[in-house]
Amino acid sequence: MRRCFLAVAVCLLLGPGMAAQVVPQRHSVLAHKPEKPPAKFFPYPIYERTLANGLRILIVPTPEFKDMVSYTTPVFAGSRNETEKGKTGLAHLFEHIMFRHEYNGVAGGYQEMMSRLGCFNNAFTEYDFTFYHPFTFTTNLVGPVETPQGPAPGVIELEASRFKGLKLDQKTFQVEAGAVLGEYRRIYSFPEQKMIEQMSPAAFPNHPYGHTVIGYLEDVENMPHAWDAAWQFFHNYYAPNDVAIIVVGDVNPQRLFAAIEKAYADWKPVSTPKIPTPAEPRYEKPVHVNWEAEVAPRLAVGYRTPAFHPGTAEAAVALVLEELLTSRSAPLYQKLRYQKQSVTSFETYMSPISTDPQWMLLGAELSLERFQKEGTQYVDDVRNDIIKGTEALRNFSQEPSAARTLEVVKSKVRNDFLAQWDTTDSIAQSLATFYRFSRDPHVLDTLLQSVEELQPTDIDDYAGKYFTREGRLVGTLWHGPEQPQAAPKKTEVR
User: Fold this and answer.
1) Domain covering 21-264, topology
2) Domain definitions of the chain by residue range
3) 334 or 5: whose pLDDT is higher?
């Protein structure tokens, strides 16, 4: 969440080389024979090593991004790991307070040194993981680095310092915790986010997916007083066996491994708490949100979806569902937006890519004017169209153009993946997003290969299993109660 701009730094060699396992990939120029055939999609070699403490290190040389590097740290914990009542939002809180680390005992010392290096430094939190991704010059990785403001440690040392031993005083903690409340208010000024917040407990009453990433409002309000709970979360999950280092850029892997091991080898592993298996809910009552002001009505239809396992047919289906349902060329989108013109927008609020069974949430914005005239009958018509269009995928393979449609969708998904690998940061983020599931460095190729092998009947099977009445939850939002009266018809004056 913190950002700073790039500045000039001087060149410094990284240090002695070390042997590392190479994960062969397409376009690799490695001298030895690869252990498996070259990958089909991911265009870079991946060098992998695991330290004795469990820390996984992936290094992806991308020399075309000359002199630049993303030094990223995915933590395999997010709001899903907040299992205690009254202690939600801690994963997101650490996304904030990690930037307040007292490097060398100096308040704000970490941020000061990263600013000297001119790093673009940011982070984000999701349900299942938290991602820290400084972006800088390759020569800033190992210090000391001479800067106009004076010498600075390298990025590796700075990152290792805060992850191994985060330090800040309680007052700083309280100030940053208080800032999260402002972020909460901003996020939930959007109707769609408020719907997700209020539908989640109904969808997952016995699992941490029942609260959103930022946490319940009462917990966010209490965050300045959550000092002990916060440090327990840090101890449980900010450990080498639950973290990876993914470095993408113009780097020499053999030299880089030595510097990383030196900085992190003394980091002690811990036993991380187990997350409860989510129960199988049966949704019965729709969720309605009474918005405080007049606003265009929103409608959301959610379906329970399985845990994401890269390489399986179900995971491949999860990657193409958005194209089949809410892309501009999807039949359901075409029907709602253009043929019937019953919605002003139709999109995927949440995608089914998660560690535990989650849900796919489809959301529509309706016409306020029409709603005021027709009332809930209008909403019911749109809801029925969304349900019918989504559950029609149970018979996808029986459509005359099913095979051709799926081939086009698969091509679109594949090309979208390839197109997004246009920066060191996007490469690292894409790899981290899916590496978290299986800790497999080949995961991106595994995913895209499974998409290539997808058949129309796989869509049938997925929809038949998960797009069911029992696994469906509907939410609505507008100004007023769940059953407003349609506006009275105007009497013509003669």
Assistant:
1) Cytochrome Bc1 Complex; Chain A, domain 1 (3.30.830)
2) 21-264, 287-478
3) 334
